[in-house]
Design brief:
- This protein is α/β, with parallel strands linked by helices and 142 residues long.
- Helices cover 47% and strands 17% of the residues.
- Helix 2 (34-44) runs parallel beside helix 3.
Length: 142
């Protein structure tokens, strides 16, 4: 399954969401603020990032700008997570660079559908590398 970076400052949210994602077969790394989230995204290269928008040190809005400005992280799909579901927040998150948006409390089935869709889209847009070419020639299309 996918390697997911969860950037969340609330301990109960981190624990609940990480355990549920791990039970679904994903590996989960955790960052507790935006600054460490940006750093871990660059060093760990996750398949997808779940980004709380209300974070200490560097909030999610600034973190997404940093992630999308870096060549190393700009193509990693990001789902914004927020408890502040105000009118226009989804559009604001997408405009800031997030690939999708979800509200807290998280409804796991809805979030998993979004994760699956973004990972599929991400793999469809993967660059055609020598490794992909070798796999294709061997009949293992990924």
């Amino acid at each position: 399954m996918a390697k997911i970076l969860l950037v969340e400052d609330n301990e109960m949210n981190r624990d609940m969401l990480s355990r549920r994602l791990i039970r679904k077969g994903h590996s989960v790394s955790i960052a507790v603020d935006g600054e460490s989230g940006v750093s871990m995204a660059g060093s760990e290269g996750p398949d997808l990032i779940l980004l709380d928008m209300s974070l200490p040190v560097l909030d999610g809005w600034e973190a997404i700008r940093c992630l999308k400005a870096s060549g190393a992280t700009k193509d990693i799909p990001v789902i914004a997570l927020t408890a502040h579901a105000m009118s226009g927040d989804r559009e604001k998150a997408i405009a800031a660079g997030c690939d999708d948006y979800d509200t807290k409390p998280v409804e796991l089935s809805r979030l998993l559908d979004k994760i699956t869709a973004l990972l599929a889209r991400s793999s469809d847009n993967a660059p055609y590398t020598e490794c992909n070419v070798t796999s294709a020639l061997a009949g293992d299309l990924t």
